[in-house]
């Protein structure tokens, strides 16, 4: 049988054999990609995060994804340094975590990332002095109240977007990193956004998307710089998650709850330098990549114009 097939192949023209070879190679490549996707999303075990150190520092831990990270890391047995701007909310989250994970040690640091950032970073340095902070979750971030054209972005919003999303993440990382370098171990997770990575553009959210593109490149560079120092740096790229910032109240198959996202996110820490932890988001990413950029751009512009219209209506009602 095999000899018969071999003889038939020999009798075929060279161009046909080349096409068959390319087809088989493409099929093999696709099969390996699918197997890898299944393994990393469903079979690969998460790392023991305590190996990085017994403390984790989280920015923006009083709401949304940051709050979910705090609870999930406490369940894993890590002590927490919670950095946020609202002391009452920090206290509330701390007490709630301790009620469920009583052995967790918690330190809180009040920092307004849109205010005096240098003073805030100084307080972070003082708080972590002597602690083996092995995990840093740079989650703090701000977005637009609703979609708007770039010329409609006021000075305060423009300043906050750059200061919180870019300067805040950069300076907190610089504050925590020396201890990791000294101990030769650590993990840094920077929360990016599909607005900067998955879709080719995010019209009417231009500055937000640009700040998240910075986070992605910043993370990749640090990943290369510090990999040999025992420090794993990763940019996580969520799409929509049911949070206040995304203005989504209910979770669904493609829109996880904050707890659902955080549980998935912990399994990816220490692996790829860029990832989308919640597996249904990878399907949306694949769909976006399969479509022409002009189609995605047009759909996104139409979608964001709808958000802008609804936001303007809400503003006008508040003024009445």
From TrEMBL:
<keyword id="KW-1133">Transmembrane helix</keyword>
<comment type="similarity">
    <text>Belongs to the short-chain dehydrogenases/reductases (SDR) family.</text>
</comment>
<keyword id="KW-0812">Transmembrane</keyword>
<dbReference type="InterPro" id="IPR051019">
    <property type="entry name" value="VLCFA-Steroid_DH"/>
</dbReference>
<dbReference type="InterPro" id="IPR002347">
    <property type="entry name" value="SDR_fam"/>
</dbReference>
<dbReference type="Pfam" id="PF00106">
    <property type="entry name" value="adh_short"/>
</dbReference>
<feature type="transmembrane region" description="Helical">
    <location>
        <begin position="15"/>
        <end position="40"/>
    </location>
</feature>
<protein>
    <submittedName>
        <fullName>Uncharacterized protein</fullName>
    </submittedName>
</protein>
<dbReference type="InterPro" id="IPR036291">
    <property type="entry name" value="NAD(P)-bd_dom_sf"/>
</dbReference>
<keyword id="KW-0560">Oxidoreductase</keyword>
<keyword id="KW-0472">Membrane</keyword>
């Amino acid at each position: 049988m095999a000899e018969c097939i071999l003889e038939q192949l020999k009798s075929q023209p060279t161009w046909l054999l080349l096409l068959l070879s390319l087809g088989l190679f493409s099929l093999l490549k696709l099969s390996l990609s699918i197997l890898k996707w299944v393994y990393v999303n469903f079979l690969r075990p998460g790392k023991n995060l305590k190996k990085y150190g017994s403390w984790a520092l989280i920015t923006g831990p009083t709401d949304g994804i940051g709050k979910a990270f705090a609870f999930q890391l406490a369940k894993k047995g890590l002590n927490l340094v919670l950095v946020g701007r609202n002391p009452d909310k920090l206290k509330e989250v701390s007490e709630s975590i301790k009620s469920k994970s009583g052995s967790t040690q918690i330190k809180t640091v009040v920092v307004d990332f849109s205010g005096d950032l240098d003073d805030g970073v100084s307080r972070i340095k003082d708080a972590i002095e002597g602690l083996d902070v092995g995990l840093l979750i740079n989650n703090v971030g701000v977005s637009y109240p609703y979609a708007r054209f770039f010329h409609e972005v006021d000075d305060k919003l423009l300043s906050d977007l750059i200061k919180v999303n870019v300067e805040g993440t950069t300076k907190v990382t610089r504050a925590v990193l020396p201890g990791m370098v000294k101990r030769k171990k650590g993990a840094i997770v920077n929360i990016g956004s599909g607005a900067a990575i998955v879709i080719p553009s995010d019209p009417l959210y231009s500055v937000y998307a640009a700040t998240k593109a910075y986070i992605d490149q910043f993370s990749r560079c640090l990943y290369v710089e510090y990999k040999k120092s025992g420090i794993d740096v990763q940019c996580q790229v969520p799409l929509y998650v049911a949070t206040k910032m995304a203005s989504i109240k209910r979770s669904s198959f493609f829109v996880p709850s904050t707890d659902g996202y955080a549980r998935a996110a912990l399994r990816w820490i220490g692996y790829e330098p860029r990832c989308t932890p919640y597996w249904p988001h990878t399907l949306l990413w694949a769909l976006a990549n399969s479509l022409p950029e002009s189609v995605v751009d047009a759909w996104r512009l139409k979608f964001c114009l709808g958000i802008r219209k609804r936001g303007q209506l809400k503003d006008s009602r508040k003024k009445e």
